[in-house]
Amino acid sequence: MAENVIDVKELWKVYSKKDIDLNVEDEEMVESLDKSSDSVVAVRDVTFSVKPGEVFIVMGLSGSGKSTLIRCLLRLVDISWGSVTINGQDVTAMNKKELTEFRRNQAAMVFQHYGLLPHRTVIENVAFGLKLRGIPKKERRERARETLNIVGLEQWGDYYPASLSGGMRQRVGIARALVADTPLLLMDEPFSGLDPLIRREMQDELVRIQEELHKTIFFVTHDLDEAMRLGDRMAVMRNGEIVQIGRPPEVFANPADDYVARFVQDKRDEIRKTDEQMAALAAQSEKAGTPDVS
Amino acid sequence: MFPEAFKYSVAKSVNSAIKWLLNTHGSAFDSFSSGILSLLLWVQGILVSIPWWAYIAFIALMAWIATRKIIPVIVLAVLPIFIGMFGLWHLALETLALVITSVVIALAIGIPMGVLMAEARYFAEFIKPVLDAMQTMPSFVYLIPAMMLFGLGKVPAVIATLIYALPPVMRLTCLGLQQVPRPVQEAALAYGATRWQLLKEVRIPLAMPSILAGVNQTTMMALAMVVIASMIGARGLGQEVLMAINRIDVGRGFEAGISIVIMGIVIDRITQGLAKRWDPNRK
Lengths: 294, 283
Prior knowledge:
With 294 residues, chain A is an alpha/beta fold. Chain A has helices spanning 27-35, 66-73, 96-105, 122-126, 128-133, 137-150, 166-179, 196-213, 224-230, 248-253, 258-293, and strands at 6-16, 39-50, 55-59, 81-86, 89-90, 107-110, 184-188, 216-221, 233-238, 241-246.
């Protein structure tokens, strides 16, 4: 068990207006939670594990619980039931102090909306995690500068986030995560807000960084393309449950149910359409091309 | 008509409470009073020792830092000269000393209280009606007991100004902290910020524009209290206004009134400009 970076067992997360003490073995209680309009079961009985060096993708539509799931891993939201173990440490059982230490040293997170500090320069943002740990200014600036090189922002250190484009801001977000030098990287739809070309570029960049650093990456997305490009394994979520786990090509080839099939269908249609268009283009250029040659 | 049977008065008990305070804790109020008075006189001593042209230069400099435009600098630097021309310079300094002392005390209490309001929900629920009362209670109602407890003169004026000017900085500090975007706070927490680090590194700096708006509001309200404060013997521009009213000397009242307005405009424009400079979103 210790060889897994992430071990999640029977994880539940219920958002509720009232204080509730969830007991999933109490079927009546679960049923009443499902019916009640005061509570939402965001994550339901999720179990999975992630191996070292793996890029694990969680895919699902918005509202499927994937963002809540990634927040449970750092206990940014309280866990209602089940256990989360990361690098052999039981996150569920930690007290406040242990949790703070854990967040500082074991995992770093990249957010969809960047979460950069507007009143700090790029380099100060990158060094923020180190500052929280109490690392002296000189050392943290040095390390932040090195990391800015990795993401290609070495000249932007003294600018404020407001003067950067979305893609550049997310590079800062990634640099902030990398500089923490944690074994685990959590990414919550990091590229969803970027336009397609930049998104593509950032994905390539992530692949390159991963080849260099061999982190364990837990990556949340709603984009099948992204899952296929980046993932070693992927989990598909719907209504808080994991409906399928597997290698992306397997999921693509053998969707477990209608929901996954619909996800995959769009992609298949796209590929078929592109194939047809390419064929049509090829045929056209053959016709048009012949007289030119002669 | 409201039924006679339900008639009940608290006036007597309030009166005897004040009397009791006066009789049993009179010396405590006296020493508190002399503490504030010495702070006030110290501030006033410093202000009086500064030559008038130094004020003009200082205002011009601050206006330049705040606005970076030449016309506001000239206007803001020339306006105070009128106060001197009306022969009210010294009185204006006394008023300024009162305002500065009140504002410094108000900020020293108000900003931490505002932070506490944002951090502790129950405290906020408890303190909000108190703030409402402080702002809506007619000032004469607390001016008289303040005078009884702290004696005539500047000290009850400072207390009354505090009661009136404290709420805005508390409210705006609390509001600013509550409006810090969730994603930024979440990111800081994810990197292992403690509650204190979150407050110091993220929430207070991002709430700064709102906190400074509170400082501005508090200063303006303190200035608005000067006429009322002069009724209980605090000297300064308010006293001049009061005297002019008594003698139905419209012209003299106008000069003093305009001087207060000038002080208000200068302080307001400079603090607002500095607040804008501080705004992290403008960088």
